[in-house]
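Fold in tokens:
===
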Amino acid sequence: MDPELEAFIPFFPELDLTDPVAARATAAALSASAPALDISGMEVEDRTVPADPNVPVRIYRPRLAQGAVVWLHGGGWVMGDLDSEHPWAARLADGSGAVVISVGYRLAPENPFPAALDDAYAALTWVFEHAADLGIDPDRIAVGGHSAGGGLAAGVALRARDEQGPPIRFQLLNQPALDDRQTTWSARHFTDTPWMTRDRIAVAWRHYLGSAPASAYAAPARAVDLSGLPPAYIATAEFCPNRDEDIQYALRLLQAGVSVELHQWPGTFHGSQAIVSAEVSQRQIAELGAVLRRALAA
């Protein structure tokens, strides 16, 4: 493991996803401790997407931005909101020069699948339909997310393809949660890796799926056909239970004729880029921005 990351592991708080309220408080406290970013060079605005129910979004607009990404936070579908995602959405906007629309989707277990996916899809549709008012090029809209949010982004891309919905330019998938079955080598062997363990991921999937059977929109690795999807960037962490399902998804996309950039970050663990003092984290954050900038170039 990267020594700069390993030094922080003893200071991680306990995370019990069987108690969603406590888990949300823990995650919020960690996010609040992230170093602040100077956002004086961009506009930040809270809006509401009309839906049933309405979906809160926070829009980050750097100067001269035209391309955009509908961004979905991580947190195992159980944790996270617009405030906890603020440090990372702002960094993505700053690094990419793109408009970032951070989505405050409904959380499980109170709102199991398909609530979060419906919220994410409503946000994408709203951004596309109001692109002119938002100052966004409708041909330069991406979807992206981290962890559970990455899985949601992949599900949104599948749904948009199947329903002939808004055209998506690109998928930015950072350590996405794609497969509820947990049968890969990394899912079976990384049982006690930092922050996100096999058991925590299993609990998160149970919260998210509720009583519904897993579908391709909930767990995109279950999709039989991956053709016709937007180009993708997929980043994985070496010591992450999701690692192998993400790599397999990238290979299946390639085999389906979808252009993919895959980056496996050595010495990292799930979510470790939040330790922004580490050199490898700085490179990860910078790469997300640079990849999105290239993908949305005119």
Remarks:
- The mean pLDDT is 96.
- The radius of gyration is 17 Å.
- Residues 3-295 form a domain with the Rossmann fold fold (CATH 3.40.50.1820).
